[in-house]
Amino acid sequence: APEQLGLCIEWLWQQTQDELMGLGCESMNLGVFSLAAKYGLVAESLREALFRMTKFYGTVSNAVSFSLEENGDEAAIKIALSHDEAEHDHILTEFLLIVMHRYCSWLVGRFIPIHSACFSYEEPEHSAEYQLMYATVCEFSKDKNALIIPSELLGLPIIQNKGSLAEYLEK
């Protein structure tokens, strides 16, 4: 259940004092996502918010990077870890893609449909769970870790504010 996962993640953060839960090539201080979310909140559109998030993480971390790639009617929200080979079971990649999707949907006040989810690693034994996590076609052994969404949604306005951000972060 999402509530149980949330409690587990919070416990891991407290135990490791690391937003990457000890799974990255370096630790990330607690509160980085909160600051990134605030930085993205001042954007006018989802596209701008994603660019701001990309810039923010590129400034504060060598462990993880986000990027946005537009190609016609599709856009890829990409994540790259500095040391993918260190992530044996891909938990961090799975988690960060889910967090980014949830954040984007929250920013614009509606569910962002995912056309497909791409992963740079071979299909794991637990791949059946990916359908539950991403509710879309999942492709493995690709050249990137990304969620593919309709590019037309990148123009959606940001409807959240500092007050709703505080509530969102508590969840």
Your description of this structure?
With about 170 residues, the chain is an alpha+beta fold. It is built from six helices and five strands. Strands 1-2-5-3-4 form a five-stranded mixed β-sheet. Strand 1 and strand 2 form a beta hairpin. Helix 2 runs antiparallel to helix 3.
Sheet/helix structural class: alpha+beta
**Widest sheet: strand ordering:** 1-2-5-3-4
Cα gyration radius (Å)? 15 Å
Quick one: biggest sheet? 5 strands, mixed
Mean pLDDT across every amino acid position: 90
Q: Would you list the SSEs in sequence order as H and E? A: HHHEEHEHEEH
Taking the alpha carbons of the first and last residues, their distance comes to 13 Å
Number of helical elements? 6
Strand content: 15-25%
Shape: globular
**Total beta strand runs:** 5
Write the layout of secondary structure elements.
Elements: H1 2-16, H2 32-41, H3 46-60, E1 64-71, E2 74-81, H4 91-108, E3 116-118, H5 128-134, E4 137-139, E5 145-150, H6 162-170
Parallel strand pairs: 3-4
Antiparallel strand pairs: 1-2, 2-5, 3-5
Helix pairs in contact: 2-3
Give keywords.
alpha+beta; 5-stranded mixed sheet; 6 helices; globular
Summarize the entry for a quick read.
The chain has 171 residues and is α+β, with helices and mostly antiparallel strands.
